[in-house]
Amino acid sequence: MLTRLAPGISMARFLGGYGDKQTMNHITNETSRLNLAKQYYLHAQVIKVVAEDTSGAFADYRLTVAEGLYRPAPNETLEVGSTNYLMANGQAVVYELIDEEGNNAYEKTFDLAVYMKDNIEFEKMILDYDSYDPAGELNAQIVVIMPKIRHPWVVTYANKIETQFNNYVQSTNELVEILEV
To answer: What is this structure's pTM?
Structure first.
């Protein structure tokens, strides 16, 4: 069954990231599946806003889901509020901006984060840089955390922002561009 969240955007886009695809087979409760679809509807709007950007600033790039639905390992207990917990219930998605050659567009990711800050609503957005690549390449991702939707469709946004480098907070309430390691 294909669940469309927006034109051209289905639930499948959020089921894991590249190299780590998931299914929803472990979610057997229909209410849990519906709640997950509601959360991913908010994320589909993020993708839609970027795809429909009329400035042309991101025309040569594509926003991909690097990490979507998190499936806990057997006997794994997720800490409430942790990124994996939020990814397991659809609130958090990790995005990457990819250039025409299929590379992480870390320099343009800052511009995208600024654009997203000004054009979408969210609970929290983290501009996340890291230098963990063995080749020494800088990597940039944007973690978007949406508020939990309360019954029936009540959402309140906090619009918090943060910048991290190698999992250390660099700033809160502002975005910082990191260009070299």
So the answer is: 0.91
